[in-house]
Amino acid sequence: MELLSPAGNREALVAAISCGADAVYLGYTAFGARSYAGNFDADGLREAVEYAHERGRKVYVTVNTLVKQCETDDLCDVLELLGNTNVDAVLVQDLGVARIAQARFPQLVLHASTQMTVTESRSALFLKSLGVCRIVPARELSLESSCRRWGLHASFRRGNARLRNCGRWRIQASRLKHLRMEHYALRFPDNVCSRV
Asked: What is the pTM of this model?
């Protein structure tokens, strides 16, 4: 089992690792859904990965926004940076991002973000065909039903509570600091999350 924690800035990263997180997920300055978080620029990202890896921890970076066609070159620059920085995985929302990452940056390990709203096994298997090795399913799903129906293994993370809004998440910022919830990710048992 892996304990995964958010790290919106350097202080949160250090705190999460000091408190026993096996891995952290964080955003880069571009293509991350948590634009309110401090996020990391290229130098900060390199330092974060180095800090985590020196302590035997993993870093997952979110590229979990929908990407427009005109942003493809910028996206490729970010994915190249993530590959060169040796992040342990990239959490994606956009299927096009998953396809581009698989085709152009096969060394990147892909995780499906909860923003993909995966709710059933056919979607999970389709994502597997795109090279995704871990899925953070829709929050409406229970761990028991997901594991039983999909035949996948679970890991857990601590995350901010969110409210449902038309198939996507909106954050109630005034209550954010008071609400916490458990969530989990599912990984394919026969698809080891490792670089090519």
From this structure: 0.77
Give per-residue pLDDT as tens, 137-175.
777 776 666 655 665 555 544 443 332 222 233 333 333
User: Is residue 44 within 8 Å of 93, Cβ to Cβ?
Assistant: no
Structural contact between residues 26 and 62, judged by C-beta atoms closer than 8 angstroms? yes
Which string of DSSP letters, residue by residue, matches the chain?
--EEEE-SSHHHHHHHHHTT-SEEEEEBSSS-S-TTS--B-HHHHHHHHHHHHHTT-EEEEEE-S---GGGHHHHHHHHHHHHHHT-SEEEE--HHHHHHHHHH-TTS-EEE-GGG---SHHHHHHHHHTTEEEE---TTS-HHHHHHHH--EEEEEEEE--EEETTEEE--HHHHTT-EEEEEEEE-TTS-----
CA distance 52 to 25: 11
